[in-house]
Amino acid sequence: MAQLIVLTGFRATGKTAVGRHLARRLGWDFLDTDAELTARMGCSIAELVRQQGWEFFREQERRLLHELAGRRNVVLATGGGAILHQREWEHLRRSAVVVWLRTDLAATLARLRQDEHTAGQRPRLHEEAADWEEETAALLAEREPLYQVGSDLVIDTAGKRAEELAELIFNITIL
After folding, report:
1. Which is the CATH superfamily of the domain at 4-173?
2. What is the largest CA-CA distance in the chain?
3. Global pTM value
4. Phi/psi of residue 52, each to 5°?
5. pLDDT score for 46
6. Cβ-proximal residues to 36 (8 Å cutoff; 6+ apart), any chain
């Protein structure tokens, strides 16, 4: 069994909730890269992006992924764009099982609409998009091939609670 499980997927796919349940089930530590970056930077991601820009944020994210590649007995929930750091991602995959929590566009949009923290935690990536729905559709189309190639396991989250998804991943990864 791998000693590092990485959860990937787009915004609002449940990576943090599933990761917490899975880590508890395994008796491992849990780390959310967005929460870790927020703690290290002393401000929200939205504020960091407003102050320093996306390029600065992505560089901090890249460095964190590199740092975390050697961790053991950890469930790691990555930000939705972490998959863009291909070199670091491949480094992570050498010692991890990567699980893509997949949702379709309609489910992603519904989850984002329901999340009162979306605006503060999930800043717009492309201001030129007509609206955040258009932006989400474009980003999903761009990233889904990366998630597919960069993952060992794909789990469709439709209609499943975080606890169910964690148990499913647990049962697959311990065998």
Report:
1. P-loop containing nucleotide triphosphate hydrolases (3.40.50.300)
2. 46
3. 0.91
4. -115, -20
5. 85
6. 64
